[in-house]
Amino acid sequence: MIFRQLFDQDTWTYTYLIADPNTKEAVLVDSVIEQVERDYKLINELGLTLKYCLETHVHADHITGAGKLRELTGCETIVPAKAQVACADRHIQHGEVLKVGEIEIQAIATPGHTDSHMAYLVNGDRVLTGDALFIRGCGRTDFQSGDAGTLYDSVTENLFTLPDGTLVYPAHDYRGHSVSTIAEEEQWNPRFVGRTRDQFIEFMNGLNLPDPKKIMEAVPANEQCGNVLVTS
To answer: Which residues form the Metallo-beta-lactamase domain (predicted)?
Structure first.
């Protein structure tokens, strides 16, 4: 399997390129519009055919490159079930398995950061956790229909129940981490360790974080597959 973790410094976002080395089919997860040229160049250098652009959720901190990459490559854009993205080619359901060559990518519903969020288990040994679970942290729950109790349930029931050795690849990292494991996060993630569900809700509701700097443009643009709205 070809597996690449790509980074956008401005938004601290990880984009993942996954491809079958035999069929050359590829999927790009959580692309960033400012990095489309980089990603398109890499795809061509590796001789890959981009089959899908896949999103973990409707992002508030960056604009997706999915629409632009669809124009360049003819790929399908796929978003989680219930995400309000009418321009997407299709929505993926919990439990659905996406095939990229011989690689299997299973969607795992993990709402809470937003009300329509998916994590993706890749070939059973690594999970792309989006904003549901970070390395020693988690995504916020105070906008886009977020819900702290729902996020607690998603992480403890749908992610922490994966095998201990499952590799954890988040959508963002702000401390320089690139990969963890389920066992590590169960033992060391300060958002969850030693907290009951009610204590987690109280903690998350008290964070009082500033809005992401791109939230006003990112959310409406991502509901249009990354096409920036032009106003007069």
So the answer is: 12-172
